[in-house]
Design a protein that fits this description.
The structure holds 2 protein chains of 2 kinds. Chain A has helices spanning 2-6, 8-13, 26-36, 49-53, 87-100, and strands at residues 20-22, 42-44, 67-71, 77-82. By secondary structure, chain A is an alpha+beta fold. In chain A, a hairpin with a 5-residue loop joins strand 3 (67-71) and strand 4. The longest helix of chain A is centred in the C-terminal third of the chain and has 14 residues, at 87-100. Chain B is 23% helix and 38% strand. Chain B is globular, with a radius of gyration of 23 Å.
Chain lengths: 104, 202
């Protein structure tokens, strides 16, 4: 999350916006946001429908798997990677996408 | 007889496989070289004056929020007497202003040790060709009877804040070796970027 926060000025440059989605409740996310000084939105999805739609909800577990998804301006998923985000890879992809005109 | 021949054949195959592994292993490359001036050039990206030979090179696997390399030295005086320092491309926190970054950084610096830090000195410095901020702190753990003296120097690489830090651990009744901080200061003062960072090339 901190890595995304550091890269916000670059996301801005590439016309991208970042959102975090978690199964934690709003109060937990509020404190998490404050503790890391995050300024981008974190969405609380306690009922998990977003995680199910993105296929990151392991059966019987109360948390989402970690996945980075880039959606372009037409709503098409253009990038999916599991695990810790590879920030350099993400930035290079966003740069390419922006140059193509397929602004995320 | 047939079984024996099969065993020998299998052994030979295993040996051939192992030998193949040995011959195909690429030679290990060293990420640094020495310049004629006695500085170290690290991966053609950084140049700095290295510490004396009694400091060991510390390599860390690169990942989120991890340093790439640093130096450490075991000190006299028993556990936990050790000093280490490093350059960090992504110090804790996000702010691009030093004062704000310092606050964010110390929320998490050595957070596993659960120390209460006291700022001993804070001053503006020149580092990596620009203005920076140096903060010297001391943290104490009265339960474990340990203390640490640390100095953190924040500088800029392009638009991003980078950091250098040294930590020196001691038992609560131990004395700090300030000569290590002088070595660290020389390292920081000599540190140069030889090329643009990944982020500057975007």
């Amino acid at each position: 999350m901190e890595g995304h926060q550091r890269n916000l000025y670059l996301y801005e440059r590439f016309n991208a916006r970042v959102l975090g989605v978690s199964r934690d409740d709003i109060m937990t996310l509020k404190y998490f946001t404050k503790s890391l000084d995050l300024t981008f939105p974190l969405l609380s999805n306690v009922t998990a429908f977003l995680g199910v739609s993105m296929d990151v909800q392991p059966e019987g577990q109360p948390i989402f798997g970690r996945r980075t998804v880039i959606i372009d301006k037409t709503g098409v998923i253009r990038y999916v990677r599991d695990g810790s985000p590879d920030f350099k890879d993400i930035l290079l992809f966003l740069k390419k996408l922006n140059q193509e005109g397929g602004k995320p | 007889m047939k079984r024996k021949a099969l065993t020998i054949l299998c052994s030979m195959l295993v040996m051939a496989w192992l030998a193949g592994c040995a011959t195909t292993e690429p030679p290990k490359t060293v990420p640094y070289r020495l310049s004629p001036q006695g500085t170290v050039i690290w991966e053609d990206e950084f140049e700095f004056i290295p510490p004396p030979p009694d400091w060991k090179l510390l390599r860390v696997e690169v990942g989120e929020n991890d340093i790439n390399f640093g130096f450490m030295k075991s000190d006299a005086g028993g556990y936990p007497s050790v000093t280490s320092f490093a350059y960090d491309e992504e110090p804790f926190g996000c702010a691009t202003k030093f004062e704000q970054r310092e606050k964010e950084f110390f929320k998490r610096f050595l957070f596993n040790a659960i120390l209460q830090f006291q700022i001993l000195e804070k001053k503006k410095v020149q580092v990596v060709g620009g203005e920076g901020l140096a903060v010297t702190v001391e943290g104490k753990d009265p339960i474990k009877k340990e203390k640490v003296r640390a100095k953190v120097v924040f500088g800029k690489r392009g638009e991003r804040v980078v950091g250098f830090y040294i930590t020196q651990w001691r038992p609560m009744d131990g004395t700090y070796d300030l000569s290590a901080f002088e070595i660290f200061d020389k390292y920081v003062a000599s540190f140069k970027f030889l090329k643009k960072s990944f982020y500057e090339t975007l």
